[in-house]
Amino acid sequence: MEGPLQTGSFRWMKSINKSTILNIIRFHGPISRVEIAKMTKLTPPTVTNIVGELIESGIVLEQKRGESTGGRKPILLTINQSAFQVIGVYVSAHRVRGAVCNLNGRVVEESERPIPPNPTAEQFLQTVQEVIQRLATGIQQRQIPLLGIGVGMHGLVDPDQGISLFAPNLALSDIPLRAVLEERFDVPVTVENDVRAMALAESWFGQGRSLADFICVHVGSGIGAGIFSAGSLVHGPSFTAGEVGHTMIDAAGPRCSCGNTGCLEAFASGPAMERRAQEKLRHGSHSLLREQLQGEWEKLSGSDLTVAAQAGDDFAQKILADTGRYLGIGLANLVNLLNPRRIILNGGVFAAGDYVLDSLKKTVHERSLTLPAADVTIVVSDLGKRAGTIGASTLVLKKMFQPQ
Ligand SMILES: [Zn+2]
């Protein structure tokens, strides 16, 4: 039987100078004490003292000696990436996915469970705790201190209180995630909207690195955006900033789950794309998928469309291109409003690659104003399915490295 779960403390990060130095080592390491003093404008004795404390805590390591032009080679400092671990939990429409990450965002262990259909708040919280418990047991066995738990939760989240205000896919509201998980696991817990957590992951470990203005757009059961503006995540006073799925792209369009008509989500979410394809097949559209589904149109999935498109099926290619066009209209609105440097796309539909991206990019460029359209690059996330759990883990890392 392993010992009790070890936990790290944020207390030693209370000093601004300490977190500044730690962040410089994270960004610029391996780096010498002299260079840190130059970059921070702190006195060399202050740097030496603080670095000493960081080394003692186990988070910073002295590495091999660096290059020197004559004289003694300086000792270089790096982050000890495996000194602590964090747990990131991503709650999507139907599943809870969890991962243990090192300080550099590398995934060490994963676990996931389906959420029972129409769950009560207790059943839902039980599922989340089971995923975390399983990962915490692994951390315990490895005897590495756990720094904290981050949760990226779909729907409306109050990150200040750590509450899931409304989770539309679960039909649950006011779930006190932070209070319940801190009570159970006795580590700091941070809760954030799932797509905002993904945007944070892109900012630290993905294609948003070193960009102050970018947008991460996730297309799944819903469509949401995590907006980075001037280097910070945008929340809005009601925490609803980024709800691009509920911007209208056609006033005469189908009804959306929010009660409005013609929202982007009602055209281009995963389920909306599947419904469009099913409807057309039901009405006799010619496709390779007819033989495969044998009249059971409701079994058609987004990945069936990708496979059929790759096999040369015109029908599937058209459905995907239409989806790209709808998404392009929504993204053009974001480009005109926010002038981002980059849009980073995430979600199952992008496995279809150019079948969806060609029309998406073309539409963004046709429908955005010339200047911002020329400045924006559109890419697919290379964090893939792990963006949610890595993002949730990054919530904890951000608290440690950038506490202000
Ligand atoms: Zn809507």
Automatic annotation (TrEMBL):
SUPFAM superfamilies: Actin-like ATPase domain (SSF53067), Winged helix' DNA-binding domain (SSF46785). GO terms for biological process: D-xylose metabolic process. The keyword Transmembrane helix does not apply. It holds the Pfam family HTH_24. Keywords: Carbohydrate metabolism, Xylose metabolism. CDD domains: ASKHA_ATPase_ROK_BsXylR-like. It comes from the Bacteria. Belongs to the ROK (NagC/XylR) family. Transcriptional repressor of xylose-utilizing enzymes. This is MarR family transcriptional regulator. The lineage of its organism: Bacteria, Bacillati, Bacillota, Bacilli, Bacillales.
